[in-house]
TrEMBL record, chain A:
InterPro entries: LpqE-like, Lxx211020-like, PCuAC_sf. Residues 1-25 form the signal peptide. The keyword Transmembrane helix does not apply. Gene3D superfamilies: PCu(A)C copper chaperone. SUPFAM superfamilies: DR1885-like metal-binding protein. This is Copper chaperone PCu(A)C. The keyword Ion transport does not apply. It comes from the Bacteria. It holds the Pfam family PCuAC. Keywords: Signal.
From TrEMBL, chain B:
InterPro entries: SCO1/SenC, Thioredoxin-like_sf, Thioredoxin_domain. Cu cation binds at C78, C82, H166. Pfam families: SCO1-SenC. The lineage of its organism: Bacteria, Pseudomonadati, Pseudomonadota, Alphaproteobacteria, Rhodobacterales. Belongs to the SCO1/2 family. SUPFAM superfamilies: Thioredoxin-like. Disulfide bonds join C78-C82. The chain crosses the membrane at residues 7-26. GO terms for molecular function: metal ion binding. This is Electron transport protein SCO1/SenC. Residues 40-205 form the Thioredoxin domain.
């Protein structure tokens, strides 16, 4: 999945790198807001983190993947609920954010799925999560860990 | 001449009304109906399954009759939908205050392989104290899901683990065990709480 995303993003990287002078075309203008996650019970269950990813620049950016020391396999997943009320979850396609737009990773939709936790997620602590973009840029955010029953960044 | 026009208009009018009725039927009761895409859950009295709650008690559909009931399916290895549903429900129950104590609130796992009684006990302990966790043998979980017309499916994930697709709606029954309504996954509190109040008040009406 990640590999395919990179391949898909490659022509865009080449195109943009030829056009603009800065090292990264767009991702340096990405701002991550309201990041939060829920505490885990131990390390056997996957965790999830949520945030808003805002593109404040003038170039379209494409979020291709995640890395974190907290989990061996962090991936962006998307929950979908069909007309019968059945929810399913699958790795999301790469996420393109137009200039001035933002994408919300929130309960019931896109989320950072943290598979194979290295450590338990303990309420009150934080962990670094790095978002990687198709232009090669990265944005790292410290994600606060809230209670298991948290409903949003403020609870 | 004049008469024929009237007849023609009349026929067109009747046709248009018939079409509207047809469209109306299609949208409301027919195959175009939005919600009951699946079937309605059975009354609790018509269900038959044996499970164990998170405190080790033997339970079944009859355990729920006598009080209004909220039931939903999920699994504790679920990172997004289930904690969201459980915290939504915890929030609704907080809104209901003392009334919440008059309800059964049951979380039935669709993943009994990993969700043992102990796992369920630990998990539900993080949410509203009214929430009970039920698990049991796979065939009994299947019978429960069948009664509620809920569906679930095991889906392998990349790392060699698996996840479960499952019905994420919350089922609301009155004290007699008749379905009152369903709450969609992540339905806003301002819609969900009145639905629960409806299930609670139907008890009073049922008692008179």
């Amino acid at each position: 999945m990640t590999k395919r995303s990179y391949i898909n993003g490659l022509p865009l990287v080449l195109l943009l790198s030829g056009m603009s002078t800065p090292a990264f075309a767009g991702s340096e203008d990405v701002v991550v807001e309201n990041a939060w996650s829920r505490a885990s019970i131990g390390v056997n269950r996957p965790g999830a983190a949520y945030m808003t990813v805002r593109n404040t620049g003038e170039d379209t950016v494409t979020l291709t993947g995640l890395t974190t020391p907290l989990a061996v396999m962090p991936q962006i997943h998307e929950t979908k609920t069909n007309a019968d009320g059945v929810s399913s979850m699958a790795p999301a396609d790469e996420i393109t954010i137009e200039p001035g737009q933002s994408v919300a990773l929130e309960p019931g939709g896109l989320h950072a799925m943290l598979m194979k936790l290295q450590n338990p997620m303990i309420e009150g602590e934080t962990f670094p999560l790095t978002l990687t973009f198709s232009d090669g840029g990265e944005v790292t955010v410290e994600v606060p860990i809230l209670g298991i029953a948290a409903r949003g960044p403020e609870s | 001449m004049q008469r024929r026009h009237v007849v023609q208009y009349g026929a067109a009018g009747v046709g248009a009304v018939a079409l509207m009725l047809g469209v109306g039927w299609w949208r409301v009761d027919g195959p175009g109906a939005p919600k009951p895409a699946g079937q309605r859950p059975l009354p609790l009295s018509a269900m038959d399954f044996r499970l164990t709650d998170h405190e080790g008690n033997e339970v079944g559909p009859e355990t729920l009759i006598g009080r209004p009931t909220m039931v939903f399916f999920g699994f504790t290895y679920c990172p997004d939908v289930c904690p969201t549903t459980l915290s939504d429900i915890s929030g609704w129950l907080e809104d209901l205050g003392d009334e919440a104590a008059r309800m059964n609130v049951v979380f039935i796992t669709v993943d009994p392989e990993r969700d043992t009684v102990e796992a369920m006990a630990e998990y539900v302990g993080y949410f509203h104290p009214a929430i009970r966790g039920w698990t049991g043998p796979a065939n009994q979980v299947a019978r429960a899901a069948e009664g509620f017309r809920a569906s679930y499916e095991r889906v392998p994930t990349e790392g060699g683990d698996y996840t479960m697709n499952h019905t994420a709606s919350v089922f609301l029954f009155d004290a007699k065990g008749e379905l009152v309504t369903m709450i969609d996954y992540h339905e806003p509190r301002e819609f969900a709480v009145p639905k629960i109040r409806r299930a609670l008040t139907e008890v009073v009406e049922g008692a008179t």
